[in-house]
Design brief:
Helix content: 40-55%
Number of helices: 21
Radius of gyration: 25 Å
Strand order of the largest sheet: 12-15-16-11-10-17-18
Structural class: alpha/beta
Number of strands: 19
Largest sheet: 7 strands, mixed
Mean pLDDT: 95
């Protein structure tokens, strides 16, 4: 049961300085992170890695308990199998869509009536406890997504927490843009002014639904979860059937904090299902679901946008991430950077470059001119050098997340001219892991459009021979305008080419990186500084995070009354 109000901790007071610093950070757009990304005992304490791993192992083969959560007596067994070769065997509480919405609505009033400061404080405390559980969550992410461990720790833990806090900061600040109360005084030609007292209250839209993806359940999920929570909405968390545990842990921690703060823990619910269920589709069109966050396929994302008309829908879907190569003064740096971008998590990222546009007659480099075919061969050599050591390869590639990715990789071997064939590698720790190196194929811009204008999610990229850099920039613009993209990159030592690339990216509606040859990669996106996604092209309908991502989740409602005569004298 919720605590008595006077007994509950004041999480806003505890985290007020952090929240204020986060608001400053989103305005400055520089580097800032309150959650250390290094999985070091110097940061997280002696014993933290071992305790986190033991906590993860304790979940295997067990029923995941969420005290007080509806549906606990009818668990659902999901298909969580580690890409590293073993079944998790965890069952979770089961809720029908109707039950989930009814329970969420019943929990909503007190959460809606809390002020933005209180809600932001609760959210910040949830994030603090998630950070403390980063090692446990990292193992859960690694063994549901196939990410290598360090990446699972960083992207599934501190970086996801950064994105969550970023959403909290925007949501908190936007709700406080208007004063809570105001006195309105209108002078009259005769007599006293008309004086009224007005209140302005941010009110959540209603039940929110988070539909999470298989590959980045926390990084992509936390922004919507925390944006909806802080704006006063109960949230139903619907994980991917193969990646439930990371978000189940998140829900458990959120519910613990809510209860301690005096709120109904059912403000946050878990809606787990197996792959044969239709919980996401049924919940998305429920008339009482007013917010939907989704990361995943374009097919289902487009269906949500077309059918969940009663809700504000925020999607991140698929696209054609594109690189234009014109020239470079650091050819080896370009190749190293691009090879790592293609290899990281086996290309199973929504930001991985797919289409590499290179003039067929060649580019100028510090090592002499290189044709498109030579560039493709050099990229293959860079991949082999990067992935030649088994330990380093495992730390970069991780494991293939699903059979669908493996089948797509096999299909890619039948298109164009393969210049770097994928190899199967043995993982040094997990013998049953499916580890594959990237495939690179050479295509022609004019003859292979049907191939490169579809997304090939996974370790598949194409070097596409174009007529010229101008032709490459037109292709970047046209394919992204039509099919969408989350990232675009250009390499050139000519300022006029860089300016032309900026113009093309602005018109296509995509974020652009220029001349990445060092330790920053096209795949990476830093909270508080980089925007991830944009509603300006078909790959997404929202950005992580900007004001538009939060303002559609609440409405400011006012009440007004005339002041009693005795109070007017104080105006």
């Amino acid at each position: 049961m919720p605590n008595h109000r006077s007994e509950r901790p004041d999480f806003f007071v505890r985290h007020q300085e952090l929240l204020a610093r986060a608001v400053t950070a989103v305005g400055e757009r520089g580097y800032w992170s309150p959650y250390p990304e290094s999985p070091s005992t110097l940061v997280y304490g002696v014993g933290a890695p071992e305790e986190g791993k033991a906590a993860f192992k304790a979940h295997l083969g067990q029923a995941f308990l969420l005290p007080g959560h509806a549906g606990s007596t009818s668990p659902v067994a999901c298909e969580e199998v580690s890409p590293y070769g073993f079944a998790l065997g965890i069952s979770y509480p089961h809720l029908t869509p109707a039950e989930a919405v009814a329970v969420a609505k019943a929990a909503a009033p007190a959460w809606r009536d809390a002020d933005p400061d209180d809600r932001a404080g609760v959210a910040a405390e949830i994030l603090s406890r998630l950070n403390a559980a980063s090692f446990e969550i990292a193992h859960a992410v690694q063994h549901t997504t196939g990410q290598p461990f360090v990446m699972a720790f960083q992207a599934g833990g501190p970086h996801a927490q950064d994105r969550g806090l970023e959403a909290v900061a925007y949501a908190w600040a936007e709700q406080k843009r208007h004063p809570a109360t105001a006195r309105w005084s209108k002078p009259q030609r005769k007599g006293e002014p008309i004086v009224m007292e007005k209140t302005f209250t941010p009110v959540g839209r209603g039940v929110a639904l988070l539909i999470a993806c298989n590959t980045f359940p926390t990084w992509n999920g936390y922004p919507g979860l925390f944006a909806s929570l802080v704006t006063g909405n109960p949230v139903i968390v619907k994980p991917h059937p193969r990646a439930v545990l990371p978000l189940a842990l998140t829900v458990r921690i959120a519910r613990e904090v809510l209860a301690e703060a005096g709120y109904d823990p059912n403000v946050v619910l878990l809606a787990a299902e197996d792959s044969f269920g239709r919980v996401a589709a049924e919940l998305a069109v429920h008339p009482d679901v007013k917010i939907v966050d989704f990361t995943g396929s374009s097919e289902f994302g487009n269906w949500l946008e077309d059918n969940a008309r009663q809700a504000a829908v925020y999607t991140e879907k698929a696209g054609l991430n594109t690189v234009v190569v014109d020239s470079t003064d650091d050819y080896q740096g370009l190749l190293r950077n691009l090879a790592f971008s293609l290899s990281l998590y086996s290309g199973q990222m929504c930001t991985t470059p797919q289409n590499l546009l290179v003039p067929r007659d060649g580019i100028a480099t510090d090592q002499g001119p290189r044709t498109a075919a030579e560039f493709a061969a050099d990229l293959g050599t860079a991949l082999d050098k990067l992935l030649g050591d088994p330990q380093r390869a495992a730390g970069a590639l991780g494991a293939i997340v699903s059979d669908a990715v493996s089948k797509r990789l096999e299909e890619a071997a039948t298109v164009g001219k393969t210049v770097h064939a994928p190899r199967t590698l043995a993982h040094p720790e997990y013998a049953d892991a499916c580890v594959r190196t990237p495939l690179v194929a050479l295509l022609d811009a004019d003859g292979d459009a049907e191939t490169y204008t579809r997304e090939w999610f996974g370790p598949v990229s194409f070097v596409i021979a174009t007529d010229s850099t101008s032709h490459s920039l037109r292709l970047l613009h046209d394919t992204i305008r039509r099919h969408g993209a989350l990232t675009a990159t250009v390499h050139s030592r000519e300022e006029y080419v860089l300016q032309a690339a900026r113009a093309a990216a602005l018109d296509a509606g995509v974020h652009l990186s220029e001349n990445l040859t060092g330790p920053v990669f096209a795949n990476q996106s830093a909270a508080f500084s980089d925007f991830h996604g944009t509603s300006a092209n078909p790959a997404a309908s929202a950005a992580l995070t900007d004001p538009a991502f939060v303002t559609g989740r609440f409405t400011v409602l006012q009440s007004r009354r005339h002041l009693p005569a005795q109070e007017k004298t104080h105006v």
